[in-house]
Structures are given as structure tokens and as C-alpha cells.
Amino acid sequence: MSPKVHNIVEQNLDTVVDLERRLYSCFTPIERVTYRLTRVIGRIESLALQGVLALSWVIGNLRAVNPHPFDPWPFHGLELLLSFEAVVVTLLVLTTQRMMQTLDNHRAHMALQIALLNEQETTKVLEVLAGLEKRLGGVPDEKLKTFTQEVDTRRVSDAIKKSLEDEGPDAE
After folding, report:
1. Where do the structural domains in the chain lie, given as residue ranges?
2. Which DSSP category does 67 fall into?
3. Between the CA of residue 120 and those of 40, 59, 124, 153, 158, what are the distances in Å?
């Protein structure tokens, strides 16, 4: 990669990191803690720790090991603890998914805005090229004429919607 391209890539990466930081900072402190906690809980080490703790609980409460267990078989205390943990983990995951959906929606809107701007810029460049072609006496290019027309985004959106409806679960 040439140094110029490398610099552009680095600049783009810095821009993306800055945008992600700004988006992430819009969440409340509790949401940010929830996100971090979910990342920790979602690791394989957490699963292993969970297994070790549950096994230790069971072994520690067997009458053969402990004549006075605090949670004898069938381990209702462990069951209650694991049920509570399941509810908490579920809420953490749902909260994190909502946050990710918010971030994804923002990214999608930003990508759409940039794509629309890019389409407008490209159309303008093609209009300039068509004007130069005309002034220089070139043969008009029909594709160029087609591409210089503005795209009707509503029509495109309606066509996509119709196509998706046609390919729905009932389509054969």
C-alpha cells in the first residue's frame, strides 16, 4: 500500500473510531456499564467460572462431604440463584441488543445519507461531462443521458418493498 493510501486509510479509521466513541457516549452511564458487563459475561471464561461455582455448590452441599449442608439436595437455593441470574443476564442481553440496534440504526441512516449525497455528486459530475461532450461535438451517449437523471428514491424504495413482498414466505 502506498504511503498516500495508507494515510487515507488511517484517517478514515480515525474518523470511524471517533464516530463510534461519540455514538457510545450518548448512552447513559448505566447503559455503558450494562454493555461492558454483557461483554464480560459473554466470554467463555465466564461460562467456565459458572460451571465451577455450580459444581462447587453441589459438592459442598452433599451430605457425604458436608454433614450440615446449607442447601441440601435438591439444591433449591442453587435453583433460585440460577433462576435469578438467568433473569438478570436476559435483561442485560436485551438492554445491550437495544443499544446495538440504536447504533446500527444510526449507522444505517448515516450510510444512507452519504450514499444519497454520493449519488447527487456523481449525477452532477456526469452532467458536467455531458456538457463537455456536447461542447466538444462528441456523439451523445444514451447511457450518460440516463445516468445524469436524478434517481427517484421513493420509486426505488417502492420497488424494493414490492420485490421483498413478492419474495415473501408465501411466494413460490
Report:
1. 3-41+74-166
2. S
3. 44, 69, 6, 11, 20
Contacts 24+ apart (CB under 8 A), 23-30: 23/103, 23/106, 24/103, 27/99
Predicted confidence (pLDDT) per residue in 102-152, tens digit = 999 999 999 999 999 999 999 899 889 888 888 888 887 788 778 888 888
For the segment 141-164, the average pLDDT, to the nearest whole number, is 85
**CA–CA separation, 27 vs 25, rounded Å?**
5
- Integer CA distances (angstroms), 159 to 33, 163, 164, in order: 42, 6, 9
Distance of CA 81 to the CA centre of its chain: 32
pTM of the full predicted structure? 0.70
Q: Give the DSSP letter string of 70-101.
A: SS-TTTHHHHHHHHHHHHHHHHHHHHHHHHHH
Closest to 85 measured CA to CA, from 112, 50, 57:
50
For residue range 26-46, what is the model confidence (pLDDT) as tens digits?
A: 999 999 999 999 999 999 999
Taken in order 118, 124, 130, 135, is the CA torsion positive or negative? negative
